[in-house]
Amino acid sequence: MIVAFSVTPLGVGEDVGEYVADAVRVVRASGLPHRTDAMFTSIEGEWDQVMDVVRRAVAVVEERAPRVSLVLKADIRPGVTDGLTSKVETVERHLA
Fold first, then answer.
1. How far is Cα 4 from Cα 75, in angstroms, rounded to an integer?
2. Domain named Thiamine-binding protein: which ranges (predicted)?
3. Which of 19, 26, 33, 42 is most exposed by smallest CB count within 10 Å?
4. Helices (runs of H) and strands (runs of E) counted in the chain
């Protein structure tokens, strides 16, 4: 499964980069395949693994922010691995 998620601290002002960096550190330390862009972090793995990482990423932001917003989108396809790469490669192949 692939989960794209965004964790946003609320009530801490406009500059939230350091809070987001804390969440991304949790994702990177997980060892699961992941990719971060300007809007979301995507992570790939089994349901329990991925949801545990999301939970911990929210928790680390929650430690410092009075309120946290979580946006999450999931692609649940049992048996598919390396979806982070293969989905993008498929689109690129069609663009070529």
1. 9
2. 3-92
3. 33
4. 3, 4
